[in-house]
Amino acid sequence: MIRALAFLVISILSPNGFGGVLCTATSRKDVAVSWKWEFMNASFPIMFGQVCHSYTNGSTQEDQLLVYAGYHQSGPSNDLYRYDFPKGQLYGVIQHGVPGGSIPFGRGGAASILNPSKRTMMVFGGSQSPAEALDDTWELDIGTFTWTEYTAGAGQGPSRRYASSTVYVPEMDCALLFAGSFWKERLYYNDLWCYSFSTHKWTARVPSLGSSPAPRFGHTAVYYDGYMYIYGGGGNSDVDFTDVWAFSIGKHEWGEVLSQPPPGRAWMRSVLIDAHWVVVGGARNSTDNIEVWRWPISPSAALGSWQQVDMAGVELVGRESHCLLNHRNGSAVYMLGGYSYERKGSLAEFVRFFY
């Protein structure tokens, strides 16, 4: 699978919209935080490209972790696992289709988001190999672990792709999906789609004015305070991007965000921690890294710089296409799996750091 890197040149988002304020601060070590990696006592399958979400069990109110799909050494998987945080136990989950229905094919690199109020997990697309891409949409009821497929008509949903980014927009009850790739056909996208959890339909979101980010894949995204932010990734002919963009939900437009960034990367993962965008790992120049960077994404801290966190604790190898999530109640970030160039294969490591 192609891996591209992006040396980012970011522009700042002003409190009143997209501004052109150039940040002259330089990237530096972050001495304000002290985070430490530690291994979790759990054995997960060796894989990469899976999706992970945390949620609360409806009956016991205990915190759980869902891990779905991904690439085994033997091929794409459609396995579903549940990790019980209080018990520290991993369980295989028996999945069901609705009466007369089925469950999704095995895949990796799918787009996925969890709707906490409706207690459903949406999965779109992904690939069964670099030569194949999918365009199916599924929802999983996380109470009964029952899948329902929602089929879009021709042109009424995103085309076949993998390595897209997805965020949940609560005020729209919608999953925003951006970009992705179908590498076999040399197709790279920069379109934006909204999946409604109420109607189970896709709607194209065409920006009202201005330019849009270049087509890309393997980037990362977060949603914060009315904006979808995207970072990094690769594109056609291994083009290296030097941009970070934000999509305004209210103004329905894209704008660049300028600052002094970390070195570019693709296939990284990111989370939000206390109004900071935290990016972990990724690949550049066919080399993985395990760097941790954070940026004050809040408009009130718009002139803040990207800072590299000097992580303590256990030593980890670089990785890409891993899982990363901010656990709701534990004040901790969890990381699972991924692919390692150094080890020439997938990882089963389950680690965390508290913040």
Structural descriptors:
mainly beta; Neuraminidase; five-stranded mixed sheet; globular
* CATH-derived architecture: 6 Propeller
Uncertain segments are 1-26
Major β-sheet annotation = 5 strands, mixed
The first-level CATH class name: Mainly Beta
DSSP summary, beta strand count: 33
Class by helix and strand content? mainly beta
Q: How big is the Rg?
A: 19 Å
Strand arrangement across the biggest beta sheet: 4-27-26-25-24
CATH superfamily: Kelch-type beta propeller
Shape: globular
Global mean pLDDT = 86
Regarding quaternary structure, what we see is: single chain
CA(first)-CA(last) distance: 34 Å
Approximate strand percentage: 35-45%
What is the CATH topology? Neuraminidase
The total domain count is 1
Please give the count of helices.
Answer: 0
Q: Please bin the fraction of helical residues.
A: under 10%
